[in-house]
Structure formats: C-alpha cells, structure tokens
C-alpha cells in the first residue's frame, strides 16, 4: 500500500523528513478492529513533534492522527460498523497512523463521518473535537446547558480552540471568551461564535476582568506556563483550569487560595490505558457528526494541501511548526483513481 512515513528524525526543512513508501498492507482485522481505506488526513502539532523527537530507529513509522475514510473490513467482534460505512477518527498514538492507504483502528474510537461534509472537511475534525469535548465536558465537567458564567479558551484560533468555541456555544449557555492576538485570528474566533475575544499578547487578566463576568472554567490550549499567573488571577473561586500542553513547571499553589483545580486533557488516554469508557469517544464523535450535519458546528478546514504525499504533509508540518496556523490543513486522495 502507499504510505507516508519517516525513518529518521529530521527538521521539516529537509525534503526527506517524510518519505513516500510502498509498505505491506495491514493484516485482516481482529477483535473490534476496522480496516479503513483512508481518503483524507489532517496535520496536527503532534505529527510534527513526533517526526522531530520520536526516533523510529531506521524503521518506517507512519504518522497521522486524523482521518476520514471507508470501512473495507471488520473484525469478528466488531458490531458498530459494516463495510462501506464512511467514518472519521483520530486513531491511537501507539499504532500505525493514518498517513497510509489502509489503517487498522478500534471501532470504539470511530464515528460515522458527517454526511454534510466531504472527506477533507471531515478529516479536520476528529482529534480536535475529541480533545475539546473531553476537556470541556469530562475534565472541566461543564454540564450541558450550563449558564451563569464564562468559559475562557486560551488560543481560540488553533484547531482545538476552534472546536472548543463551537462546542461551548452549541451545548452550553456560558459566555465564551477566546484569546487571539492578530486581526485575522480575532475575526476567526468571532466567526465561530465567541462572545468576546481578548488579546493574549496583552494584559490578559485585566482584559477578562473588564468584561465583568465570572470565569469558573478555563481551557488553555497553548502556552499554559506563559499565561499561568494571569490564569490563576482570572479563574473564579472553586473554578477549574484544563491544559493540554506537554508537562511543565507550574506554580500550582497559586490556585490554593481560591480552592481552584488543575486538570489535564490527554485524548489518547482512554485507548492507551484501555479504560472502561473507551466507547465514549465513539459516542462523542457521533454527536459531533450530528451537530455538523445540522449546521450547528462547521469544519475547521482552512488549507487543502492536495493529494496525500510526503511533500504535501511536510508542508502541513511546516505550517503547524510556524505556530500561526488558523484551523486545520488537510491532504486528500492518493493522486490516482480509487
């Protein structure tokens, strides 16, 4: 099968940082696995981080943590999907990724893709939707329909922030405050439904406090350490902060006077540790698909990279490494007839 992989950690400026390869097809699906023919994939910061840091020791390693495609075969214990179903998913960080024509994935972390969207638009959604949903409703424990306060989304124009804004507007009555530092990112956040947009390059605490609404929930999608003192100043007494950055040093004691808490979101935790509620990801993707088909939320696809290839995906890696990407970049098809 066609695949895009890497065999050595190289910078994105190196044209051989990703390679177009022919690799063996995956084996027939077992257990609750699906064999999916991948039609579109999106690029996430995780792809670039793994390519730059996770040494595959000379063996081809397939990245890709977002896909939309068609089910071609199902394992003997699979019960949710049938061959021919069009699906979307983020996959698992400890298995071969989606940058391949064929991929095995556990059906419990897969959903039927939105019929209203095309494959590329669908592929932009899974990882960011799962991360945002789990952060808001599982980690911050925001009740559906909650009102009477605000949610602050730090980094509103990124992939995860873009979905957090939309899900909060669709499923809660909270005031949604997003942060953005450029005119184009501010406009993007407003277009997704943020009630207010403040500049995280300025005095974040002062700007949020000037809005005059308590903030019991803060979701920090980026640079938590940089914004930590402002976050601790902003969060309401007994509030919660959720972060997705990689491990860092934080003055967690600053939350104690308010009896506030810090929680982490790690969207691969359920599948990595085989938790009893793995199927929650299937259920939330089902709801995301319903919301997209109803027109309540939209795809965050902003850049089409062309057919899936090493060159196209490497362009996507460079975009996310620049840290100025709005929404998601997606590659679709394999450059030949299906």
Automatic annotation (TrEMBL):
SUPFAM superfamilies: GroES-like (SSF50129), NAD(P)-binding Rossmann-fold domains (SSF51735). InterPro entries: ADH-like_C (IPR013149), ADH-like_N (IPR013154), ADH_Zn_typ-1 (IPR014182), ER (IPR020843), GroES-like_sf (IPR011032), NAD(P)-bd_dom_sf (IPR036291), Zinc-ADH_QOR/CCCR (IPR051603). Residues 16-331 form the Enoyl reductase (ER) domain. It holds the Pfam family ADH_N. SMART domains: PKS_ER. Gene3D superfamilies: Medium-chain alcohol dehydrogenases, catalytic domain (3.90.180.10), NAD(P)-binding Rossmann-like Domain (3.40.50.720). CDD domains: AL_MDR. Keywords: Metal-binding, NADP, Oxidoreductase, Zinc. Residues 1-25 are annotated as: Disordered. It comes from the Bacteria. Belongs to the zinc-containing alcohol dehydrogenase family. Quinone oxidoreductase subfamily. This is Zinc-type alcohol dehydrogenase-like protein.
């Amino acid at each position: 099968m066609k695949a895009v992989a890497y065999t050595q950690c190289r910078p994105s400026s190196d044209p051989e940082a990703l390679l177009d390869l022919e690799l063996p097809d995956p084996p027939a699906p077992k257990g609750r696995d699906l064999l999916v023919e991948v039609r579109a994939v999106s690029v996430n910061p995780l792809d670039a981080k793994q390519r730059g840091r996770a040494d595959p020791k000379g063996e081809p390693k397939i990245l890709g943590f977002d896909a939309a495609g068609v089910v071609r075969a199902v394992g003997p214990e699979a019960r949710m999907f049938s061959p021919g179903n069009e699906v979307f998913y983020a996959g698992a960080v400890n298995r071969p990724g989606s940058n391949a024509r064929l991929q095995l994935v556990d059906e419990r972390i897969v959903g039927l893709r939105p019929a209203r969207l095309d494959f590329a638009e669908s592929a932009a959604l899974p990882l960011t939707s799962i991360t945002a949903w789990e952060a808001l409703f599982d980690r911050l424990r925001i009740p559906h329909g909650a009102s009477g306060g605000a949610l602050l989304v730090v980094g509103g124009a990124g992939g995860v922030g873009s979905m957090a804004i939309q899900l909060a507007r669709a499923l809660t009555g909270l005031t949604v405050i997003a942060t953005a530092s450029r005119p184009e990112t501010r406009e993007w956040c407003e277009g997704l439904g943020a009630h207010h947009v403040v500049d995280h390059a300025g005095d974040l605490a002062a700007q949020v406090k000037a809005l005059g609404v308590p903030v019991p929930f803060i979701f920090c999608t980026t640079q938590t350490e940089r914004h930590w003192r402002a976050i601790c100043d902003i969060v309401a007494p007994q509030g919660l902060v959720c972060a997705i950055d990689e491990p860092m040093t934080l003055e967690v004691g600053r939350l104690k006077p308010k009896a506030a808490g810090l929680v982490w979101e790690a969207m691969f935790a359920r599948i990595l540790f085989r938790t009893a509620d793995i199927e929650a990801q299937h259920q939330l993707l089902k709801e995301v698909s319903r919301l997209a088909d109803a027109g309540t939320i939209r795809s965050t696809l902003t850049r089409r990279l062309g057919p899936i290839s090493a060159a196209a995906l490497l362009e996507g890696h460079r975009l996310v490494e620049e840290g100025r990407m709005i929404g998601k970049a997606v590659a679709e098809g394999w450059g030949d007839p299906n």
